[in-house]
């Protein structure tokens, strides 16, 4: 039943994205961003398209009823359309975070934040908003407000359309997240880190984790920036490259961790989830040091099984539950 709804919403998004892309000579992904905004505004006047295209869009608008759709149907429909749109321009750092991972991270966030309510959440590389909205939808009873930052204006526009259509209070900023941020420290950070070199050496100079020579690693600077913008005792959930701790610049990072955070968990995602093993990732969970934050007796280290292997996944959940019982 749910799949029917998702399929119908996907069709609305997909058709509108195609009409807008054809009408305005845009890429499909740009068309999708405009389509999302159109369904939110419930009008077509903002789109300078020819009359025949405006009529097609008006017909689609009449069929749509986003106010009645469940937020997760809308997010999943966007996810399908984004997958289609990002196929032609594949670049690992622009890829959306799939909800298989987002749902697992949301489960972990729920466990780590326990009975806390009214939490603020930041994703400093929010892309299409898929990861941020997966968490915001799953934890809607404990998340008060979210913040997303993204350098790519098209991806951010998709995040903005999604936040509006999924009725989430979200402040979004189109900027380089490694420049100064104008947000108060948050309770929780979630981020699928962009991996690679940061080209702006002058900007990197402000960071403890800058490289001694040459370009710094953007993913290291993102971690430092995220810790800076987290409240003492707040949790950070990162998707990191598996090689994070074995790179040329990792000594400084280890030192930074020892001073600023408690490493709570490092969970390696199954390699089968990634097209290329070199791009395989882990989930790293940190807690910023603070009066009430205690280091875990034992860091949770595990290699996660394939999410499709139900029995192995149940065993892993039991292991996680056991760790929580001992630690939290
Ligand atoms: N979680 C996102 C989603 O579900 O769509 C995908 C995150 S993707 C792995 C990393 C994102 O970081 C990309 O969208 C990229 O454009 C963005 N990015 C890279 N460098 C950035 C910077 N300096 N400031 C802000 N965003 C940046």
From TrEMBL:
SUPFAM superfamilies: S-adenosyl-L-methionine-dependent methyltransferases (SSF53335). Residues 8-86 form the YtxK-like N-terminal helical domain. Residues 97-299 form the DNA methylase adenine-specific domain. One of its GO terms (molecular function) is N-methyltransferase activity. Pfam families: N6_Mtase (PF02384), YtxK_like (PF21106). PANTHER family: ADENINE-SPECIFIC METHYLTRANSFERASE, DNA METHYLASE ADENINE-SPECIFIC DOMAIN-CONTAINING PROTEIN. This is Uncharacterized protein. It comes from Bacillus nakamurai.
């Amino acid at each position: 039943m749910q799949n029917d709804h998702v399929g119908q919403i996907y069709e609305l998004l997909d058709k509108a994205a195609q009409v807008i892309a054809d009408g305005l000579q845009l890429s499909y992904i740009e068309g999708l961003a405009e389509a999302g905004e159109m369904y939110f505004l419930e009008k077509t006047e903002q789109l300078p398209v020819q009359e025949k295209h405006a009529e097609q869009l008006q017909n689609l608008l009449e069929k749509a009823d986003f106010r009645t759709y469940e937020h997760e149907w809308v997010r999943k429909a966007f996810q399908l359309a984004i997958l289609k749109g990002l196929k032609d321009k594949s670049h690992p750092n622009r890829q959306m975070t799939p909800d298989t991972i987002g749902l697992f991270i949301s489960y972990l966030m729920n466990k780590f934040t326990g009975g806390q309510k009214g939490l603020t959440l930041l994703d400093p590389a929010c892309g299409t908003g898929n990861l941020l909205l997966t968490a915001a939808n799953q934890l809607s009873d404990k998340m008060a407000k979210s913040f997303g930052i993204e350098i790519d204006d098209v991806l951010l526009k998709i995040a903005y359309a999604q936040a509006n259509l999924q009725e989430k209070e979200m402040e979004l900023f189109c900027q380089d997240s490694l420049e100064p941020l104008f947000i108060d420290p948050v309770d929780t950070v979630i981020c699928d880190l962009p991996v690679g070199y940061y080209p702006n050496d002058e900007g990197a100079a402000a960071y403890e984790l800058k490289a001694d020579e040459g370009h710094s690693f953007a993913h290291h600077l993102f971690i430092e920036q995220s810790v800076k913008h987290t409240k003492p005792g707040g949790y950070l959930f990162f998707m990191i490259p598996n090689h994070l701790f074995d790179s040329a610049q990792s000594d400084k990072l280890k030192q930074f961790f020892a001073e600023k955070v408690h490493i709570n968990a490092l969970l390696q995602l199954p390699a089968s989830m990634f097209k290329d093993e070199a791009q395989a990732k882990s989930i790293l969970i940190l807690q910023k040091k603070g009066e009430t934050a205690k280091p875990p007796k034992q860091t949770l280290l595990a290699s996660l099984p394939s999410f499709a292997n139900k029995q192995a996944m149940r065993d892993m959940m039991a292991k996680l539950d056991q760790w929580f019982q001992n630690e939290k």
